[in-house]
Design a protein that fits this description.
One of its GO terms (molecular function) is transferase activity. This is Glutathione S-transferase. Keywords: Transferase. Pfam families: GST_C_2 (PF13410), GST_N_3 (PF13417). The chain starts with 7 loop residues before the first strand and ends in a 5-residue tail after the last strand. It has a domain of about 120 residues: Glutathione S-transferase Yfyf (Class Pi), Chain A, domain 2, CATH 1.20.1050.10. By secondary structure, the chain is an alpha/beta fold. The chain contains ten helices and ten strands. Bound molecules: glutathione. The site of glutathione has 15 residues, from helix 1 and helix 3.
């Protein structure tokens, strides 16, 4: 049975955002517990821990839950600062790689898979995004997306060339490197030859890629979703208790009932009591019959919060 201070990652192998976090665990040389979730709904164990958040990855430590790779990586960095991974413009690079470059990776992969995409997956992703998952449109967009994708890979090449460093923010790998690498890993995991073609001639990048691939994923041990729920039920939340953190002006009132949701896709509302809020994170507390009381932490960037009394 895992302990209440073990890192539990709810994820699945093919998930690029999860892979980014697995690599940070590798960079830090950490041991962690793995709960493999389905890659589409239903995910009953996960949503009982998160109050409705369904995306991968989610990190759990005891009764503290962290949603979204951005805040998961920040929390890993806070708890395990060695070796330092939050260096230079790591967070803006992470957001660019997650949102802009990633959309081109998606267009290339699903456009190239075309008819091979499972209809159940298409239906799930339409619900996730609230938009048609139009494989034909993606197929038409796949070729132009390749040029977009290679141009962005070219930024890594030029950054490494001009800085004359082995990694994007200096001599060692940081969150910026793992974030940028996520798109290369994702494309190469489905179409390895295409990824190599699109990276042709980028000698600095290809050397950087080879170094990153040495990092590994730490020490992984499998547990079940039921085990993870048991850990939460038996633990007390360690995250900020009410009144310990003052919210930034306009960001919300401690003790209010609030709803938090992602601002891009998978906008399922997560309801709870606001217990902490600053310019980087929002922490709510909620109680579920299976998990007991847990805290759930979201990054400020990429999530919206509203008081439930203020409509909808
Ligand atoms: N901004 C989120 C994005 C996470 C995300 O989109 N994850 C994908 C898998 S890589 C997902 O959850 N897709 C829907 C699903 O798997 O149910 C993060 O950084 O964690």
């Amino acid at each position: 049975m895992p302990r209440s201070d073990d890192i539990i990652l709810h994820h699945y192998d093919a998930s690029p955002f999860s892979n980014k976090v697995r690599m940070l665990l590798g960079l830090k040389g950490l041991a962690w517990q793995s709960v493999v979730t389905p890659n589409m709904m239903p995910k009953p164990d996960l949503v009982s821990l998160t109050g409705g958040y369904r995306r991968a990855p989610v990190m759990q430590i005891g009764a503290d839950i962290y949603c979204d790779s951005q805040v998961i990586m920040a929390e890993i960095e806070r708890r395990f600062p060695e070796p330092l991974a939050d260096v230079g413009p790591s967070w803006p690079i992470n957001l660019w790689a997650d949102r802009i470059w990633f959309q081109h990776s998606v267009a290339i992969i699903f456009g190239s898979l075309g008819d091979k995409v499972d209809p159940a997956f298409i239906e799930d992703r339409e619900k996730l995004s609230g938009r048609p998952f139009d494989v034909k449109a993606m197929a038409a967009a796949a070729e132009p997306a390749k040029a977009q994708w290679r141009a962005q890979a070219g930024w890594i090449e030029s950054a490494l060339t001009s800085s004359k460093t082995d990694f994007l923010c200096g001599a060692t790998a940081t969150i910026a490197d793992l974030a940028a690498y996520m798109n290369i890993w994702f494309l190469a995991s489905v179409f390895p030859d295409m990824a190599s073609d699109l990276l042709k001639g980028f000698d600095q990048l290809n050397g950087w890629r080879a170094s990153i691939e040495q990092i590994g994923q730490g020490e992984r041990q499998e547990i079940s979703g039921a085990d993870a729920i048991m850990v939460a039920a038996e633990a007390e939340p360690a995250e900020t208790t009410p009144g310990q953190a003052e919210p930034e002006a306009g960001l919300g009132m401690i003790g209010e009932k609030v709803i938090v949701s992602a601002d891009d896709y998978g906008r399922d509302p997560i309801a709870g009591e606001l217990i902490a809020c600053d310019h980087q994170r929002t922490v709510i507390r909620r109680t579920d019959s299976a998990t007991g009381t847990v805290t759930i932490t979201f990054p400020q960037v990429g999530f919206l919060m509203r008081e439930t009394t203020k409509g909808a």
